[in-house]
Write a structure and sequence with these properties.
Layout: H1 3-6, H2 23-40, E1 59-63, E2 67-73, E3 82-87, E4 90-104, E5 109-123, E6 134-138, E7 141-147, H3 150-154
Antiparallel strand pairs: 1-2, 2-7, 3-4, 4-5, 6-7
Length: 164
């Protein structure tokens, strides 16, 4: 018996189905093509062609009278793999996610590895004191506190609203 005979199917036995047999499939193909052609002019990649393993952390930014607070969700990332930088009027969070899964059984061995890096740059709305910025990391949440400069705190001016 040959190896080909043991295979449940081969390329010769697969039925060929044309998109023209189903009008909805043809319509979807035309819409996908039109959307891809439209986005190509803007150098944007359609969502269904992007890599699904890329990682972009979710970031929440809040501002109080005296400081800017940033909370970033970084599940599965170790503290040593996180880099936080404040430069000028922007905050940059960089990191690398590494994951390894090993599974051993009596008759098998499986090892899966995935790696990926990310970078998020957040524009800061006011002048900040970079020397007094702090960051803490606990249970996958990175908390960053950046105090505003004295100049930024003083420049705040409330404008009264008049009713006409």
């Amino acid at each position: 018996m040959t190896l080909r005979e043991l295979m449940p199917f081969s390329k010769k036995t697969l039925p060929i189905r044309h998109e023209t047999e189903n009008p909805f499939a043809l319509f979807r193909h035309d819409m996908d093509t039109m959307y891809e052609d439209f986005l190509r002019g803007f150098d944007i990649e359609p969502a269904w062609t992007r890599k699904m393993d890329s990682f972009t952390p979710r970031v929440d930014v809040t501002e109080s009278e005296k400081e800017i607070n940033v909370a970033a969700e970084l599940p599965g990332i170790e503290e040593k793999d996180i880099d936080v930088t404040v430069s000028g009027n922007s905050l940059t969070i960089k990191g690398e996610k590494k994951e390894e899964k090993e599974d051993k059984g009596k008759d098998y061995y499986r090892m899966e590895r995935s790696y990926g890096s990310f970078s998020r740059t957040i524009p800061l709305p006011v002048e900040v004191e970079t020397d007094h910025a702090s960051a803490s990391y606990k249970k996958g949440i990175l908390l960053i506190k950046i105090p505003k400069s004295a100049k930024a705190i003083e420049e705040k001016k409330k404008i009264p609203v008049k009713v006409e």
